[in-house]
Amino acid sequence: MPTLRSLRSTIALLVALAALGCGGDPKQIRIGAGPPEAVLAQLEHRKGLTVEETRLLHGYFARTRLDVIEGTAPDVTGRTVGELIAEQRSWEQANARVIAERRHQATEWKARAGRVVAEMENALSVQVLESRDAESSGSGHQRSLVVKLQVENVGNRSIAELEGAVRFADVYGRDLFDGPVRIREPIPPGERIERALLLDCAPFMDQETRVRQVRLADTKAVWEPRLIRFEDGGVLTLPDE
C-alpha cells in the first residue's frame, strides 16, 4: 500500500513531467521528487529522445540505484532530464578511458614480463619430475605436495637464488592450484641439481572445492619463474603489475 509521502512524491513528479506539455522537449523536463521508475515510465512514449539518449537515462538510474538503496545517491530533484543524460555520457566516456588505460597497461606489462621470462629461460631450466601428496594433507583449502624438481643452469652466469611456482592445471587447461618455490644455493653454469620440496599449494579462485579432490594424475604441472638472483649481483624478476 503506497504511503502518503510516496503518493505526494509521485504526484510532484508527474506535475513536473507534465509542465512542458506533450509537445515540449523532454530533455528540458525537470525531475520531481518521485522514484526514477516514474520518470522512465512517463518518458517511455514521448518523442524527442533518441535511442542513445534513452539508453543513457536508463544507465544513469541503473548506475545510481545502489546509492539510492544506501541513501547516498545525489538529489536529482530539480535537475533536467538532459542534465542526467549529459552526466551519464560523461561518466561513460571517463570510464571508457580508464578501461582503455588499464588494458594498455596490461598489454605493456605482458610484453615486459614476456621479455624477462625469455631471459630467465635462457639462464635456467626447471623440470617437474614427480609430484605426490605429502603425508600431511595441509590445512584449510591448501594441499601439501612433495614435488621433485630438476634445476639446470643453462646460462653462463652462476645462479645464487631462484624463486617461482609450480602451477597445476586440469586436462582442460584450467588452473587449479600452485605452490611457491624458493631455492637458495649456488648453481654454477652447466650444473644440474635435483631437489624434492614440500609445497603448500593454494587453489586459484573458484577452485577451493577441487583442490583436494582432483587426482594428480589428471593434472599437468608447469614451472613458472619469478626471480633469478645471480652471484655477480644481477637480478631477473618479473615487473610489478
Query: How many alpha or pi helices?
Result: 5
User: At CATH's second level, what is the architecture of the largest domain?
Assistant: Sandwich
Enumerate the spans where pLDDT stays under 50 for 5 or more consecutive residues.
Answer: 1-22
β-sheet strand percentage = 25-35%
- Order of secondary-structure elements: HHHHHEEEEEEE
Helix content: 25-40%
Q: Name the structural class.
A: alpha+beta
Please give the number of β-strands. 7
How is the CATH topology of the largest domain named? Answer: Immunoglobulin-like
As a whole number of angstroms, the C-alpha radius of gyration is: 30 Å
Q: Tell me, rounded to a whole number, the average pLDDT.
A: 83
Total of domains: 2
Please report the distance between the alpha carbons of the first and last residues.
53 Å
The largest beta-sheet arranges its strands as 1-2-5-4-3-6-7
Major sheet attributes:
7 strands, antiparallel
CATH class of the largest domain: Mainly Beta
The gross shape turns out to be: elongated
Question: What labels describe this entry?
Answer:
241 residues, alpha+beta, Immunoglobulin-like, 2 domains, seven-stranded antiparallel β-sheet, elongated, disordered N terminus
Q: How is this structure best described in words?
A:
This protein has 241 residues and is of the alpha+beta class. It folds into 2 domains: 4-79, no CATH class; 123-237, Immunoglobulin-like. It is 35% helix and 29% strand. The protein contains 5 helices and 7 strands. The chain has helices at residues 4-18, 36-43, 51-63, 65-70, 81-123, and strands spanning 124-133, 143-153, 159-169, 175-187, 192-203, 220-230, 235-237. The protein has a 7-stranded antiparallel sheet, with helices on one face. A hairpin with a 5-residue loop joins β3 and β4. α3 (51-63) packs across α5. The protein starts with a helix and ends with a strand. The relative contact order is 0.11. Mean pLDDT is 83; it is low at 1-22.
